[in-house]
UniProtKB/TrEMBL annotation:
It comes from the Eukaryota. The keyword Hydrolase does not apply. The lineage of its organism: Eukaryota, Metazoa, Chordata, Craniata, Vertebrata. Residues 419-767 form the Exocyst complex subunit EXOC6/Sec15 C-terminal domain. It comes from Callorhinus ursinus. This is Exocyst complex component. Residues 57-226 form the Exocyst complex component EXOC6/Sec15 N-terminal domain.
Length: 810
C-alpha cells in the first residue's frame, strides 16, 4: 500500500473514533516495518491536540507491553534455574571423561609409533617406485629422440642431406614436442637451424660444381645432340629416296649432288669423333644431374625453393651470355662456327632436360624467353661474322651447320623459323660469293680461249663436245671429218660452269624446308644473277679489252648466239633437278636472252668502233702531195691496203648474222667517206692543186669499186655506194668545173650536185684558188681567158652568199 493510501486511511479512522483510531494506528505501527512516515503524519496533521493524545496512548501501550514481558519472565524463571543446576552436575562428569580420553590417547600414541615408522618406510618405497616408473617412462620417451638425432648426425656425415632434412622434419614435428621441456631438447632445437644452413651451403656448393661441369661439357653435349639429329636426318633422306624409287618418282638427273652432300655431312666436323658402331651417348651419360635434383629437393624441403630457382636461373643466364659470345676469329674456319653451335645446343639441351625432369625449376616460359634472347644474339652474331666469309665453300658449310643446329633445337621444341629466315639472307651472300668465284672462272675461260671454231677430227671428239654442250645442226652432222663447230672452246666450258653454278646454288637451297617450286624459283633467280651480272660483266670487259681484235669480236658474237640458244636447255635442266613438272612452272624465266643480246650488241658496237679505228690507222698513213700538177695514174697504196684489209675482214663476217655484217660494212664505208672528206677539208691544209684532186678522185673511185663489188651480201642495188655519194658529187663538180649547173640547180630536189654543201665547195675552192695564185698554175688562163678567172671570182662570191644565207636561215 502506498504512503498516500496509508495517510488517507489513517485520517478516515481518526475522524470516525479518535480513541479507537489511535489504537488502530499503534497496531498499524507495530504491524508494519516501514515506512511509518505517512501514519505519523496523519497523527500530527489531523487535529490540534492529536499529538498529545497519541503520546498518551503510546505510553499506555508501552506499559502494557512491559507488564506482559514481566509476566513471561516470571513464568520461565524456575526452568532456567533448574537448567543451570543440571549443567553444573555435567561439568564434573566432563572433566573425568577428559582425563580418561587423554590417557587413552597416550596409550594409543605409544602403541602406534612403530606402525608409523613402518608406514613411513612403505611410503618412501612407494615414492621411489613411482619415481623409477616415471624415469623409465621419460627415458622411453627420450630415447627415440636421441636415436633420431644420432641418425641425423650419421646422415650428415654420410652426406645424405635430403634424408637428414626429412629426419629434422620428423624430429621437429613428432619427437621434439614430446620432450620439449628438457634442456637437451632445447639444445637440439637450437642446433637444427645451423645444420640446415650447413646443408644449404653444401648443396649450393655442389650446384656450383654442377654448373661448372655442364659449362665444360656443353660442347660435348651439343656435339652429341647434333650428331644424333644429323644421323636422323640422313636416315630420313635415305628413306625418302628409297620411297621415291619405290613409287617411281623422279629423282635428280645427276645424283652426285645428294651423294656429295651426304658425304660432306657425314665427314664434316665429326670425322674425329666416335665410330659408327660406337654407342651414342645421351645427355644423362655425359652429365650427372643428381646435384641439381638434391639441391632442388633440399631447398624445397627447406621452403626456400624460390631462392634456389632464382639463383639457378641467374647463373644459367650468365652462362648463356658467355656461350653466346663468339670468338673474334670465328668466321675464319668452320671449326669456329661448329664450336659456337655445339656449346649453344649443349646449353639448351641441358635446359630442356631440366625442364622435363624437374617441377618448376625452369618453366617453358623461362626457356622460351631465354631462347628468344639467345636467338636474337645468335642471328646478330651470324649475320655479322658471315659477312666476312668470302669462300662459298665455307658459307655452304656454315649453312649446313645452321640447318643441323636448327633441326637439333627444333627437335627439342624450340622455334627456329627465324634461323631459316636468316639462311635466306646468308643465301644471298652465298650467291654473291658464288658470283665472285664464277667471275674468276669465266675470266679464266675467256683468257684461255683462242676464239676460233672448235676443230674435230673424228666421231669421238664430236661426241665429247656434244656431251658438254647441247648443239644441234643437221648440216654439220652431215659433213665429213675433219670439221668445225661454229663456236669456240669457251662456249661448252661456259655452259658447263653455269650448270656447276646451278649445282652449287642447289646445295644451299636444300634442307631449307622449302617446296620444290620455291627452290626452283630461287635457282632461276640466282642463275639470272649469274647471267645478267657476272657473265654479262665478264663479256663486256672482254669485249672492251684492247687486245681483242675484230676476229675475236666476231667469234664472241657467234659464241653469244649459241649460248643464247642454250638457255632453254638450262631452264629444262633446272626444272629436272628440282622435280618440277613443266605444267606447274609459273616461275621466273631465265634472262639469258637479253644478257647475250646485250653482250652481242656491245660486241657489234665494238666491232664498228675497232673497224673505224683500223680505218683511221690506214688513213693516217696517207701521204698526198697536195701541190702535184699531175696525178700518178693509180690509186694510193694506203688505200689499196685498206681495201684489201676490209675485204679480208668482211670475209670473216660471213659467220655473223646478215644485218650485223651489213651494218659493219656500211659503217666502215661511211666512216671511210667521212675520213676522206675531212682530209680534204682539214683546216691545216691550206692549198690543193687540181692534180691532187685528180689523184684523190682515183682513190675515191677505188672505194666505189669496192662498194660495188658487194663485199658483204645482202645490199640492194647501189646502197653501199651511196656512202661515197657526197665525195663523188663534190669531186665531179671540181673535175668537170660545172659551177653554172651547181649554182643554177642549187636547192632543187633533182639537182645533180644535191649532196654538195656550199660551205664545203667554198672551202675547197678557196684552197685551190690560193694554189693558183702562188704557183701561177692559171697564169696562162688569166692571160688567155680572163673571163674564166672572173667566173671563179663570181663563183666564190655566189658560194659565200649561199653560205651566209644558210647561216641566217639557221
Amino acid at each position: 500500500m502506498s504512503a498516500a493510501g496509508k495517510s488517507g486511511a489513517c485520517e478516515a479512522m481518526l475522524e470516525e473514533d479518535p480513541d479507537q483510531n489511535y489504537e488502530n494506528v499503534l497496531a498499524e505501527i507495530q504491524s508494519f516495518e516501514l515506512p511509518i512516515e505517512a501514519t505519523l503524519r496523519s497523527v500530527y496533521d489531523d487535529q490540534p491536540n492529536a499529538h498529545k493524545k497519541f503520546m498518551e496512548k503510546l505510553d499506555a501501550c508501552i506499559r502494557n507491553h512491559d507488564k506482559e514481558i514481566e509476566k513471561m519472565c516470571n513464568f520461565h524463571h524456575q526452568g532456567f534455574v533448574d537448567a543451570i543446576t543440571e549443567l553444573l552436575k555435567v561439568r564434573t562428569d566432563a572433566e573425568k571423561l577428559k582425563v580418561q580420553v587423554t590417557d587413552t590417547n597416550r596409550r594409543f600414541q605409544d602403541a602406534g609409533k612403530e606402525v608409523i615408522v613402518q608406514t613411513e618406510d612403505i611410503i618412501r618405497c612407494r615414492i621411489q617406485q613411482r619415481n623409477i616408473t616415471t624415469v623409465v617412462e621419460k627415458l622411453q620417451l627420450c630415447l627415440p629422440v636421441l636415436e633420431m638425432y644420432s641418425k641425423l648426425k650419421e646422415q650428415m656425415s654420410a652426406k645424405r642431406y635430403y634424408s637428414a632434412l626429412k629426419t629434422m622434419e620428423q624430429l621437429e614435428n613428432v619427437f621434439f614436442p614430446r620432450v620439449s621441456q628438457y634442456r637437451f631438447c632445447q639444445l637440439m632445437i637450437e642446433n637444427l637451424p645451423k645444420l640446415r644452413e650447413d646443408i644449404k651451403e653444401i648443396s649450393m656448393s655442389d650446384l656450383k660444381d654442377f654448373l661448372e661441369s655442364i659449362r665444360k661439357h656443353s660442347d660435348k653435349i651439343g656435339e652429341t645432340a647434333m650428331k644424333q639429329a644429323q644421323q636422323q636426318k640422313i636416315f630420313s633422306v635415305a628413306l625418302q629416296k628409297q620411297n621415291n624409287v619405290k613409287f617411281g618418282k623422279n629423282v635428280y638427273i645427276n645424283d652426285r649432288i645428294p651423294e656429295e652432300r651426304n658425304e660432306v655431312e657425314l665427314k664434316r666436323g665429326f670425322e674425329e669423333e666416335d665410330e659408327n658402331e660406337e654407342e651414342v651417348l645421351t645427355v644423362q651419360d655425359l652429365v650427372d644431374f643428381s646435384p641439381v635434383y638434391r639441391c632442388l629437393h633440399i631447398y624445397s624441403v627447406l621452403g626456400d625453393e624460390e631462392t634456389f630457382e632464382n639463383y639457378y636461373r641467374k647463373q644459367r643466364k650468365k652462362q648463356a651470355r658467355l656461350v653466346l659470345q663468339p670468338q673474334s676469329n670465328m668466321h675464319e674456319t668452320v671449326d669456329g662456327y661448329r664450336r659456337y653451335f655445339t656449346q649453344i645446343v649443349g646449353f639448351f639441351v641441358v635446359e630442356d632436360h631440366i625442364l622435363h625432369v624437374t617441377q618448376g625449376l625452369v618453366t617453358r616460359a623461362y626457356t622460351d624467353e631465354l631462347w628468344n634472347m639467345a636467338l636474337s644474339k645468335i642471328i646478330a652474331v651470324l649475320r655479322a661474322h658471315s659477312s666476312y666469309c668470302t669462300d662459298p665453300d665455307l658459307v655452304l658449310e656454315l649453312k649446313n651447320l645452321i640447318v643441323i643446329f636448327a633441326d637439333t633445337l627444333q627437335g627439342y621444341g624450340f622455334p627456329v623459323n627465324r634461323l631459316f629466315d636468316l639462311l635466306f639472307e646468308i643465301r644471298d651472300q652465298y650467291n654473291e660469293t658464288l658470283l665472285k668465284k664464277w667471275a674468276g672462272v669465266f675470266r679464266d675461260i675467256f683468257e684461255e680461249d683462242n676464239y676460233s671454231p672448235i676443230p674435230i677430227v673424228n666421231e669421238e671428239e664430236y661426241k665429247v663436245v656434244i656431251s658438254k654442250f647441247p648443239f644441234q645442226d643437221p648440216d654439220l652432222e652431215k659433213q665429213s671429218f675433219p670439221k668445225k663447230f661454229p663456236m669456240s672452246q669457251s662456249v661448252p666450258h661456259i655452259y658447263i660452269q653455269v650448270k656447276e653454278f646451278i649445282y652449287a646454288s642447289l646445295k644451299f637451297s636444300e634442307s631449307l624446308h622449302r617446296s620444290s617450286t620455291e627452290i626452283d624459283d630461287m635457282l632461276r633467280k640466282s642463275t639470272n644473277l649469274l647471267l645478267t651480272r657476272t657473265l654479262s660483266s665478264c663479256l663486256l670487259n672482254l669485249i672492251r679489252k684492247p687486245h681483242i681484235g675484230l676476229t675475236e669480236l666476231v667469234q664472241i658474237i657467234i659464241n653469244t648466239t649459241h649460248l643464247e640458244q642454250a638457255c632453254k636447255y638450262l631452264e629444262d635442266f633446272i626444272t629436272n633437278i628440282t622435280n618440277i613438272s613443266q605444267e606447274t612452272v609459273h616461275t621466273t624465266r631465265l634472262y639469258g636472252l637479253s644478257t647475250f643480246k646485250d653482250a652481242r650488241h656491245a660486241a657489234e658496237g665494238e666491232i664498228y668502233t675497232k673497224l673505224n679505228q683500223k680505218i683511221d690507222e690506214f688513213v693516217q698513213l696517207a701521204d698526198y702531195d697536195w701541190t702535184m700538177s699531175e696525178p700518178d695514174g693509180r690509186a694510193s697504196g694506203y688505200l689499196m691496203d685498206l681495201i684489201n684489209f676490209l675485204r679480208s675482214i668482211f670475209q670473216v663476217f660471213t659467220h655473223l648474222p646478215g644485218k650485223v655484217a651489213q651494218t659493219a660494212c656500211m659503217s666502215a664505208c661511211q666512216h671511210l667517206s667521212t675520213s676522206l672528206m675531212q682530209m680534204l677539208l682539214d683546216s691545216e691544209l691550206k692549198q690543193i692543186s687540181m692534180g691532187a684532186v685528180q689523184q684523190f678522185n682515183l682513190d675515191v673511185i677505188q672505194c666505189e669499186l669496192f662498194a660495188s663489188s658487194e663485199p658483204v651480201p645482202g645490199f640492194q642495188g647501189d646502197t653501199l655506194q651511196l656512202a661515197f655519194i657526197d665525195l663523188r658529187q663534190l669531186l665531179d663538180l671540181f673535175m668537170v668545173w660545172d659551177w653554172s649547173t651547181y649554182l643554177a640547180d642549187y636547192g632543187q630536189p633533182a639537182s645533180k650536185y644535191l649532196r654538195v654543201n656550199p660551205n664545203t665547195a667554198l672551202t675547197l675552192l678557196e684552197k685551190m684558188k690560193d694554189t693558183s695564185k702562188k704557183n701561177n698554175i692559171f697564169a696562162q688562163f688569166r692571160k688567155n681567158d680572163r673571163d674564166k678567172q672572173k667566173l671563179i671570182e663570181t663563183v666564190v662570191k655566189q658560194l659565200r652568199s649561199l653560205v651566209n644565207g644558210m647561216s641566217q636561215h639557221t
